[in-house]
Design a protein that fits this description.
This protein is an alpha+beta fold. The chain has helices at about 5-65, 100-105, 135, 140-150, 170-175, 315-330, 350-355, 395-400, 440-445, 455-460, 475-480, 500-505; strands at about 110-115, 155-160, 165-170, 180-185, 190, 195-200, 205-210, 230-235, 245-255, 270-275, 285, 295-300, 310-315, 340, 360-365, 385, 390, 410-415, 420-425, 450, 465-470, 490, 495, 515-520, 525-530.
Length: about 525
């Protein structure tokens, strides 16, 4: 590279070359060092980045993993898992088919139509004294009054055939005060029905038509009905043909206070559903998806009188016991525990005063000395938690269980005291405090409720005592007389009666014909009603 240079110039270039060469080697050394340092830094950065990426991915998966991801493909659904899985296939349950239940039910549900007031003869009704009678005459007002009162009323509802020989269950309020009852089947055949018996306490009635080979529904078990279960309501709403609606059971043991209007011993423990029900459905069937009768449709909750989301049915376990009693004994055999208890709608102030504890059961407030519980060991402040092993959380559930038994039946009662559980055996009694089965009497056949007249009222009416006819239902009084609610009886066959006890004694003499004599408060005159008593 220095070839051709001479003298000082050559020397200078030699020095320059040597310097440049040294510089080159120095640069090479520095470059090598720098590259070594950068490789370590890059390697460190890559290592840190890799670890950071792994950590981020692990954290993401940990936060977003699904429960099923930790189960193998062959994992079994645990027995306590609540879900929509079939126990065999682990797939969602199949849709419910209502077709079979609807087809088997509709032939057994009938349309009931009634005529009320057809036989009323208003000229026998009591009338208030009229200050204008001297001017216009009694007949002027009587004829007008008769025309207004003699118009018959018509009503309709539904019913359920429960035997092939024509026994039909419906609501008491469907046939209450009816003079005629007509039953029409889904095939359009019609029959005139006979009223066998009623129970206003549960709002049930039993009819009978003369026919054979009728389709009928089988009883189910209302104790096994569960909240969320599918049910069908079948009836004749709004005078339409047979109508089927579906819904679920939304609650059980509901109390509405409806039966207290007709009875002093109401039984209410309704099954609540959201199956659409309207006027005319009363007395119809509530069935499960197997087509079994689980309730008799009885009421709706509505601010307008039309369906607004909730309907109510009488549990079939109560129904079949009451209907069997009517057929066997002629009247319902009502069993009582002989206690008073804290109502589920009791005000908070009363609950606080009694130191009521939620979840314990039905709180006992008092035990009757001659009642079924008198010698059971249960005392005030205890909580009844089970009846025959079935859990009860409120009075309605307890009444529902007891309603399935008659006086003389023995049941087991579980109760809580100071957090401890005890069991006792109880023999149920009737309302009078005995174990006797109650048979139908002449007084029962009257079809009315009676009570002793208040002494102050008796003095006001100018008599020594009597019996008030509180409410007249279907029976001999309604069939043979024009008597109205509120009538005061003070003589039977000319013999004075001053109390319900004396009236009962007078009616137990086995007469085939009695004459009831009395008055209407606020009306003029004395009224007499003859009654023929069937043997």
């Amino acid at each position: 590279m220095l070839k051709g240079l001479t003298g000082k110039r050559k020397k200078r270039h030699v020095r320059l070359f040597a310097y440049a060469s040294g510089t080159f080697f120095e640069l090479k050394k520095i470059t090598k060092k720098v590259m070594t340092m950068k490789f370590k830094q890059v390697l460190s950065v890559m290592l840190v980045s890799g670890l950071t990426t792994i950590a981020v991915l692990y954290g993401y998966n940990k936060l977003n993993q699904r429960p099923l991801s930790i189960q193998s493909a062959n994992a079994q659904v645990p027995s306590n898992y609540v879900g929509l899985f079939d126990s065999n296939s682990n797939i969602p349950g199949q849709a419910v088919d209502f077709q079979a239940a609807a087809q088997s039910t509709t032939p057994s549900v009938v349309h009931i139509t009634t005529v009320i007031g057809k036989s009323q003869a208003s000229n026998n009704l009591p009338r208030r004294s009229n200050p204008f009678a001297d001017l216009f005459g009694d007949d002027f007002f009587k004829d007008f009054d008769n025309q207004m009162r003699s118009q018959p009323q018509r009503a309709s509802g539904s019913g359920v055939i429960v035997s092939d020989d024509g026994y039909i269950i419906t609501n008491n309020h469907v046939i209450d005060e009816a003079d005629e009852i007509k039953v029409t089947l889904s095939n359009k055949k019609s029959y005139t029905a006979k009223l066998i018996g009623t129970d206003p306490s549960s709002d049930l009635a039993l009819l009978k038509v003369e026919a054979k080979g009728l389709p009928f529904l089988l009883y189910g078990n209302s104790d096994q009905v569960k909240i969320g279960q599918w049910v069908l309501a079948v009836g004749y709403p709004l005078n339409l043909e047979t109508t089927v609606t579906a819904g679920i059971v939304s609650a059980k043991a509901r109390t509405l206070g409806l039966n207290s209007r007709k009875s002093t011993t109401p039984i209410e423990s309704f099954i609540q559903t959201d199956a659409a029900v309207n006027q005319g459905n009363s007395g119809g069937a509530l069935v499960n998806t197997n087509g079994e009768l689980v309730g008799i449709v009885s009421a709706i909750a509505s601010p307008t009188g039309a369906y607004a989301g909730y309907s109510y049915a009488i549990p079939v376990n109560i129904v079949k016991k009451i209907i069997n009693d009517i057929v066997q004994f002629g009247t319902v055999q009502r069993a009582y525990l002989g206690i008073t208890y804290l109502a589920e709608n009791a005000p908070d102030a009363q609950r606080d005063e009694l130191k009521y504890k939620e979840g314990q059961g039905v709180m006992v407030l008092d035990v009757a000395k001659d009642g079924a519980m008198a010698n059971s060991g249960i005392t005030k402040g205890d909580y009844i938690s089970k009846v025959n092993g079935i859990k009860v959380t409120n009075g309605s559930e307890m009444v529902e269980q007891v309603a399935g038994y008659k006086p003389g039946d023995k049941i087991s009662v579980t109760y809580m005291r100071a957090g401890k559980e005890y069991n006792t055996q109880v023999t149920l009694k009737n309302k009078t405090g005995s174990y006797d089965v109650v048979r139908t009497s002449a007084l029962d056949n009257f079809g009315a409720e009676f009570e002793t007249l208040d002494k102050k009222k008796a003095t006001e009416y100018g008599i020594r005592g009597g019996v008030v006819v509180k409410r007249i239902g279907k029976g001999l009084i309604d069939e043979q007389t024009r008597m109205r609610d509120g009538f005061v009886i003070y003589k039977v066959n000319g013999q004075e009666v001053k109390s319900l006890e004396e009236f009962t004694a007078a009616m137990s003499k086995g007469q085939k014909r009695v004459m009831l004599e009395g008055l209407y408060p606020g009306y003029d005159g004395t009224y007499q009603y003859p009654i023929e008593i069937d043997e």
